[in-house]
Specification:
This protein has 131 residues and is mostly helical. It has a domain of 70 residues: 434 Repressor (Amino-terminal Domain) (Orthogonal Bundle). It is 54% helix and 0% strand. It contains 6 helices and no strands.
């Protein structure tokens, strides 16, 4: 079986390119479930890395253990609203911005899994004289 959105080994986008989007596309084709904790973790990791900060720096600023923050970033732990607020504060990001990025990622994946409407072929018109 291929990669699913619930696969803990899946990569995220970031300095290596848009790897996360490609994996989400593959998973969407397989009908995988979207897990918010994984999408949230990917966004937090991407934001931290974009700032050039380490897990250690952010965990200290957020008053969260390094191991727990790592698990949140990997989508293995579900962050409480208080913990999420603390992490966002440590990253100097509004919670709404982080959730906006998560929402965009979920919408992209949903769009990939939306059913495609095919045009319906209409029956040829038969004139009264041909009948």
């Amino acid at each position: 079986m291929g990669v699913s959105l619930a696969d803990p080994a899946r990569a995220s986008s970031g300095p290596r390119g848009n790897v996360g989007a490609n994996i989400r596309l593959e998973a969407a084709k397989e009908g995988a479930v979207i897990l918010l904790r994984r999408e949230l973790g990917d966004v937090l990791r991407e934001q931290r890395q974009a700032q050039g900060r380490t897990l250690r720096e952010v965990s200290a600023a957020a008053s969260v253990s390094l191991g727990y923050l790592s698990e949140v970033e990997r989508g293995e732990k579900e962050a409480s609203s208080e913990l999420l607020a603390s992490i966002c504060g440590a990253l100097h990001l509004p919670l709404s911005e982080v959730l906006g990025h998560v929402s965009e990622r979920v919408a992209e994946t949903e769009a990939l899994t939306a059913p495609v409407s095919l045009p319906v072929a209409s029956a040829p018109l038969v004139s009264a004289s041909a009948a």
